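Service request form, structural biology core

Requester: graduate student, group of Dr. S.
Request type: structure prediction, single chain
Budget code: on file
Notes: please return the result as C-alpha cells.

Sequence provided:
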Amino acid sequence: MPADPPALDAKVAFLRSLCGRGDEVIETHFAWLFLIGDRAWKMRKPVCRDTMDYRSLEARRRDSLEELRLNRRLAPDIYLDAVPLVREHAGSLRLGGEGEVVDWLVGMRRLDRGRLLDARLAESTVDDATLHAVALRLAAFYRSAEPAIADSRLHAERLLRQIGANRAALLERPIPGADELLDRLRDFVAQRSSLLAPRAPSGCVIEAHGDLRPEHVFLGDPPEIIDCLEFDRDLRVLDRAEELSFLEVECARLGHATAGRTLARSCLALLGDRAPDTLLAFYRSHRGATRAKLYSWRAREPDGGRPEDWIARASSYVATALEDAAIALS
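Core staff response, request fulfilled:
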C-alpha cells in the first residue's frame, strides 16, 4: 500500500533545510518562496480560492507549467523550469531526480530586489533612460500580442460586469465614496462609449500581464517583467492602456506619479496609441476600484491581520479613483 503523501509542513521543513546563510523563506497566502543560493523556488499551497484550486498534485503541476509559459513572455531569462519534489524509496525528499513526485516547484533565477522598480523609485534613482527601456520592453510585448477581444460591445459589457462585481464587494463594508465612484464609472461606459468603441477592434484588448506593478519590474538589461497573473486568463485580458494605467496608479501610490505617467505615456507613444487622457483617467479609476475590492476581500480573511487596516487601504484607493473619475467625465 503506497504511503500517504508528505504533509505541507514536511515539504516546507525539507526546503527550509536547503537554506544557508543569506537565504530566505517567504510565505504568501497561496505559496511558499524559497530563496536559495542563486535560485528562487516557488511551491504552491494546496488551497482553493475563487478561480484557483491547487488541492490536487495534478493541478499544482499544471499551474506550475502555465506560470512558466506565461512569465517567459516577459521574463525569459528569469523563469527557468518546473521541477518535481520527489520522495525517494527510503522516504527522504529531494528536488528533481527519480522517485515518487509529491509536489511541483517553479524554479527561477534569484533576483536582486534592489533592482526592482519599486526599490529604485524609493531611492529616487530612476532616470528617463531607465523608464524608456521598460517602455520599449512592454511595447514589444503588446505589439506582438494577439487581440483577445475584437468586439467593442463585448468590451463595454465586460467593463460593466467588472464594475458590478466591484460594487458588490465594496458595498459590503462602509467605504466612503464607493457608491458614487461606481456610479461614475458606469456613467462613463454609457456616456463616453465613443472613447471605448475603437479599442477592441483596433487590437488593444489583449491577454496582458495582469498584475503590472512596480515591484514586478526588474531593471535588468534588458528589463524583465515578473510574476504575471497566471491563475485566471479572464483577469489577464485587458486593454493595454488599462494595464499601463494600473502601473501609473501604483507608481503614484509610491509617491512617483511622474515616473508612472512618463512610463505609461512613453509606451503608448511607441505603440502609436493615442488613447485620450479622459480614457486613461477612466482606466486609472477602474483599476483603483478593482484594487479597493481586493483589499475589502482581504479584510474578511481570518488570517489577514487587522480588518480596519485593509479597509483603510481600500478607502484610500477609492478616494484617488474618485479624483480620476471626475477627470474622466469632465
